[in-house]
Amino acid sequence: MLLAEVLLLALASMVWPTLLAVVLVLLVSPRPVRLLSFFLAASLLTTVAIGVLIVFALRDSNLVTDREHTFSPAFDLVAGAAALLFAFVLARHTHQARPKPPPTPGRPSWYERTVSRGGLLAFGVGVVLNVFPGLFPFVAMKDIAELDYSTAATVALIVGFYLVMFLPAEVPLVSYLVAPSETTEVVGKLRDWLERNGRRVAVITLATVGIYLLIRGALNI
Fold first, then answer.
1. Whose C-alpha in 23, 29, 66, 178 is 20 to 30 A from the C-alpha of 124?
2. Residue 103 pLDDT > 80
């Protein structure tokens, strides 16, 4: 069951707002393949390294073995509450932004300005942003630690989790390499759709998984 929950958390992590924002900037940059490659490489290196440290630190501390019945439910309850709070803040911000007369774009954030300037800067942004890649990856690392797989299987599962999480960057990168002209045509439509619906999807995902974590935590107390 925990393995299925890890996959669920990986899919939910795909719609983390910061990740989607960066990918959208890279997709419309003059050199999307180069910048996506640097950003993705940095993101995977950072998240996998941190994920491995978290999982094996949890195992060494016995938090997910001897004290699993106290640590795991409490962690799920805190993470679930945080996800609901973040969903509320994001939904309120989206609702307040609607009456404003568009379509003047806002000032790009620091990572949006930085990530499009070159490969090395995109790599640096990938490292900085993914020190904290979102809420759900940390829940997933706790779940992976509880599975108590072998070292090789655990590392493979961590890598697999983040490969799923970064599909929003991986799929367009492969598409650009295979069919660049067709991909360019689709990118504009995808950007428009995400600008209209991305926040709503993120709010629904955060709220749904947050409620699920609260229920899971409550049932395991």
1. 178
2. no
Closest CA to 109 of 125, 97, 124: 125
- Residue whose C-alpha is closest to residue 97's, from 203, 208, 212, 210: 203
Residue closest to 206 by CA, chosen among 18, 23, 4, 2: 18
Span between the terminal Cα atoms of the chain, in Å: 17
> Could you tell me the two tokens for 27?
């997709």
Report the pLDDT averaged over residues 41-52: 95
Average pLDDT on 211-215 reads 95
- Joined together, the tokens standing for residue 189 give 């439509």
Domain count, the chain: 1
Domain that holds residue 19: 2-219
Please report, to the nearest 10 degrees, the dihedral formed by the alpha carbons of residues 196, 160, 172, 204 taken in order.
-10
Say which residue, 94 or 107, is predicted with more confidence. Answer: 94
State the chain's maximal CA–CA distance in angstroms: 56
Backbone angles phi, psi at 14, to 5 degrees: -60, -30
**In three state form, how does the secondary structure of the chain look?**
CHHHHHHHHHHHHCCCHHHHHHHHHHHCCCCHHHHHHHHHHHHHHHHHHHHHHHHHHHHHHCCCCCCHHHHHHHHHHHHHHHHHHHHHHHHHHHHHHCCCCCCCCCCCCHHHHHHCCCHHHHHHHHHHHCCCCCCHHHHHHHHHHHHCCCHHHHHHHHHHHHHHHCHHHHHHHHHHHHCHHHHHHHHHHHHHHHHHHHHHHHHHHHHHHHHHHHHHHHHCC
Quick one: average pLDDT of 105-130? 67
